[in-house]
Specification:
8-stranded mixed sheet, alpha/beta, Rossmann fold, globular
């Protein structure tokens, strides 16, 4: 059970209301299904996941968690949405994914219980939904073994991200439900890197995730105007 104060109850409720649609590839979660192969390949290009202990923070309905488990990792997915976790557990059971468990707990509380436990920690599309992302970054670092990997993704804060991630995605293209994102919670790469450096994590790779609404194509590049991925390693003890 979560005891952390770094929780936005409205955010939890927002995604809980949509929980039954997590695995519908034509639902509000279509973008997550579309980018999941990109996320998975990018993670595996830096850190072999087979036979590794892996924590997926903010796992939701388990889209990334299942893919990582299918790639051979021993995965623990955590979230604070009970409804999303029920969907994740049911889907894993139906799909026959064995090396995967889901737990209702915050990253901060788990870091207190199991510091230095995981070879790899992922925190994707989650930091922009919490009151204090720096606390989550600190938890990621505490949970990771020295020399282990941390993978994050979030949304830059600038005029272009407001126009594309909120106006475009939520109001023009209707790719996401209105109100999915709050501009004030977006995080500039420089800010996130500052949090990471303070937590003992060193940058290895920074990539931007781009989307063409006409071709429906996603790809990674060196520029980070809107969504971006960050790969880091924990400094040796």
């Amino acid at each position: 059970m979560n005891t952390s104060s770094n929780v936005d109850s409205a955010e939890i409720e927002k995604f809980s209301q949509l929980a039954h649609r997590w695995w519908d590839k034509d639902s509000e979660f279509k973008p997550l299904h579309a980018i999941n192969p990109i996320r998975l390949d990018w993670i595996k290009s830096h850190a072999p996941v087979s036979d590794k202990t892996l924590l997926d923070i903010g796992c939701g309905g388990g889209i990334l968690s299942e893919s990582l488990a299918r790639s051979g990792a021993q995965v623990t997915g955590i979230d604070l949405s009970v409804k999303a976790l029920k969907i994740a557990k049911l889907h894993a059971l139906e799909a026959g994914v064995k090396n995967l468990e889901y737990v209702e707990i915050s990253a901060e509380d788990l870091a207190t219980q199991k510091p230095g436990t995981f070879d790899i920690v992922t925190c994707m599309e989650m930091l922009e939904h919490v009151p204090d992302p720096a606390l989550v970054v600190q938890a990621c670092a505490r949970l990771t073994k020295p020399g282990g990997w941390v993978f994050m993704s979030t949304i830059n804060r600038n005029v272009q991200s407001f126009l594309m991630a909120i106006v475009g995605a939520e109001y023009v293209l209707n790719m996401l439900p209105k109100g999915t994102h709050e501009y004030a919670k977006f995080i500039r790469p420089s800010e996130l890197l500052g949090f990471c450096n303070s937590a003992g994590l060193e940058e290895v790779d920074l990539k931007g995730l781009h989307f063409n609404p006409l071709s429906q194509r996603y790809w990674l590049s060196q520029t980070t105007p809107v969504n971006y991925f960050l790969a880091l390693q924990k400094r040796p003890a």
